[in-house]
Amino acid sequence: MYILVIEDNPDLVANLYDFLEPRGYVVDAAYDARSGLRFALENDYDVIILDLMLPDMDGLEVSRRLRDSGRDIPLLMLTARDTLDDKLEGFASGADDYLVKPFAMQELDARLKALVRRARGEQSRELLRVADLVFDPATLQVERGGKTISLPPIPLKILSLLMRQSPRVVPRREIERRIWGNVRPDSDALRAHMSVLRAAMDRPFDKHLLRTVHGIGYQLAEPDEIQD
User: Fold this and answer.
1) Domain limits for position 42
2) 47, 68, 73, 86 - which has most CB atoms within 10 Å?
3) Domain total for the chain?
4) What does the DSSP assignment read for 121-133?
5) For the ranges 13-27, 123-137, 185-199, which has the lowest average pLDDT?
6) What does the pLDDT look like over 22-32, one tens digit per residue?
7) H helix runs in 21-58, sequence order
């Protein structure tokens, strides 16, 4: 499941990462409303977790702009406001569910799954494909040539990004921002995760789909689409 978290509290974001990623979720984080709205409009998420109180624009306005753009991604709003009027205002802005802080992570997990189940009942199942590589965002299962491939959370998240952007060359800084947010990783962190990804989904096969474009970033594409 591919999730966008729009939340300006870094401690809460860290707790969400720690709870959700071991359970198979792939998580993007934006720490301000405008970045979150841009992520939501540029990428395909299964669900969005949106804080109501953000420094540059409140969550209600983010929700309205998202719905005005035509995006119907399930949206769970987080807030410390717990009156009926507050909840009604949140639903009126386009939110699908409402969770009051503080909350139990297990309840958040249950609500996310319910939102995604409801949305998938109305939408066809999406599979990402590049050549003989297949990724199912619903189950996070990866196969190549009919062989199941296991990946840790970060390489899996990178694979999802590269497949969604294929055959585009994705700049290194864009990948780092999508994986680590505003906190820059160690210089070798991305290279290490790319090595794990390449070893699992490319090296065992005759045709290589993943290419390092030196000085720019990475490209995942059909062999005849890979840039020289």
Assistant:
1) 2-120
2) 47
3) 2
4) TTSPPP-EEETTE
5) 123-137
6) 888 889 999 99
7) 33-42
Residues 59 and 164 in one domain: no
Cβ-based neighbours of 186, under 8 Å, separated by 6 or more? none
**Pairwise CA distance, residues 28 & 36, whole Å:** 9
Separation CA 195–CA 154 (nearest Å): 12
Task: Note whether 106 and 185 are same-domain residues.
Answer: no
70 versus 113: the higher-pLDDT residue is 113
Count CB atoms within 10 A of the CB of residue 103.
11
pTM equals 0.55
With contact defined as beta carbons under 8 Å apart, do 161 and 45 qualify?
no
- Give the angle 16-19-22 at the CA atoms, nearest 5°: 125
Q: Is 173 helix (H, G, I), strand (E, B) or coil?
A: helix
- Answer yes or no: do 64 and 95 share one domain: yes
- Both tokens of 73, joined, read 């991604």
Calpha distance 215→140 (Å, rounded): 30
Task: List own/partner pairs for 146-151 with CB under 8 A and 24 or more apart.
Answer: 147/204, 149/200, 149/201, 150/200, 151/196, 151/197, 151/200, 151/201
